[in-house]
Amino acid sequence: MRKLLLVTGGVIAAVSLGLQGTATAAPTGATGWPTGCTAQTNFNNGAMARCTKNNGGHYKASAICSRLDGTGKIDVEAPIWRSSGWSQVHCPPATIFSSAGIVTKSS
Q1: Cα radius of gyration (the chain)
Q2: Does pTM surpass 0.85?
Q3: Tell me: the pLDDT tens digits for 37-50?
Q4: What is the pLDDT of residues 95-105, one digit of tens each?
Q5: pLDDT > 90? residue 26
Q6: What is the dihedral angle through the alpha carbons of 88, 70, 4, 12, rounded to the nearest 10 degrees?
Q7: How far is Cα 44 from Cα 5, in angstroms, rounded to an integer?
Q8: DSSP states of 7-76 as a string?
Q9: C-beta of residue 100 within 8 angstroms of C-beta of residue 39
């Protein structure tokens, strides 16, 4: 299951992606979710994100970019999962940054 944290206009919304299932015991070697995560604009038409504790999990930056021709928005994610430091992603050509977010996973 992945978690997405989306920051828009100073409002933080956490959205859990996936279906709810029955509870089961965690497998040996299970890891936790990153905590202390923040996401913001990188001031260069994109987003940057980091977590203060990875707890064995990983994270990456996500950005929603608006198309300059007004035909909608697209969601882009950094290609590499991180366990420390800043993750960055840039909006593609012919788009402009709209909001920043972070995607996390527990492995």
Answers
A1: 15
A2: no
A3: 999 999 999 999 99
A4: 999 999 999 99
A5: no
A6: 90
A7: 20
A8: EETTEEEEEEES------PPPTT-----EEEEEEE-SSSEEEEEEEE-TT-EEEEEEEEEETTSS-EEEE
A9: yes
